[in-house]
Amino acid sequence: MRQMKLFLGPQHPGMHGNASVHIYAEGDIIKRSYLLPGMLHRGFEKGMERHTWMNNIGLIPRVCVVEPDINEMAFAMGVEMLANIEVPERAHYLRMVILELARISIHLMSYGGLGGPTGLYTLMYHAHADRNRILNIFEKITGHRVYHMYIVPGGVRKDFPVGIENDIHEFLNDLESRYTEYRDLGIENPTVLARIKDNIMLPESVVWELGVTGVGMRSAVNKPYDLRKVKPYARYSEVEFDVPVYDYSDARNRVDIKLNELVQSIGIIRQCLEKMPTGPVRAKVGNGQSMRWTVPKGQVYSCVESSRGEFGYYIVSDGGTHPYRVGVRGASYPQGLLGIEKYMPGTRIDDAPLWIDTMGVCSPEIDR
Questions:
Q1: Under DSSP, is residue 45 helix (H, G, I), strand (E, B) or coil?
Q2: Are 28 and 349 in contact (CB under 8 A)?
Q3: CB 363, CB 18: distance < 8 Å
Q4: pTM, whole model, 2 decimals?
Q5: CB contact at 8 A, 78 and 315
Q6: Which pLDDT tens digit goes with each residue over 309-351?
Q7: Distance in angstroms (rounded) separating the CA atoms of residues 62 and 333
Q8: In the chain, what are the domains?
């Protein structure tokens, strides 16, 4: 049979981000595939070395468009470690609320992403409508819907507006009340289940070979490895939550873990709002807004648990006004680059978008 070349992205609705997967197929089976991430051409890491420490706050969220706040957190933590900045107690809890809302947002977007390839657009519409409500909350808190520039070295940019807690509780209560409906509409739907159960496997051997973390690891090796637990930051050690795991990583179980994490994030946010102390929300870091603000010499690796796994920044300072070197450990780099080339072959063409979605690929993390 003649081999045919196809392009999944960057314009294809099944591609998550501005990248392209080149597919060589025989019939409807993928025989070869590789990622061309260069549709972005952003050079984030080198760009960070050209910007001052504080100016980078406006650049780094773009490393992952749909989950920008983890970039702010990882970068801010690195600067704080280098400059020995102590974050106010209230700021820790404000940060956690933002991070967990962001986690819910991207899990909803990923869950809704099942709708397009399976023809279940109702799921996509429902999930994106709820995600839009989170963006409304972000807009009230930060003034921005997508890129928030809210978590900064020393704490957060400003305190929560009056009454926002009511908006957050109202959203969480409504989302929780429809959780069973979400499951029935998606992964319990026979049409969707037929496409994701026992399909798009991620064996434990592949997890260790590629260095996959996050949902991919936790669904395959039955280990609750989550940086919020094993290396707590902010005040995650002060709240209670479980880390869902499986020992059989098909697409269905990976999606199920994301749905279970929605419930855990709802609980974390409620605890944060209940435990929220009063006080300042940002430490004094000198003239931090100045173009001439410097950070002491040193090197540090700071990491957080993104929705896709360990997301880290390796930062080197030479004592100047700009980072000397910055390296980003994108959580989806292993499966998004090496995994597509090595383990997408054998997948059906119509399941390629499901492969990208359930593996949690965010293209800018790869072309950075």
A1: helix
A2: yes
A3: yes
A4: 0.94
A5: yes
A6: 999 999 999 999 999 999 999 888 888 888 999 999 999 999 9
A7: 16
A8: 42-331 (1.10.645.10)
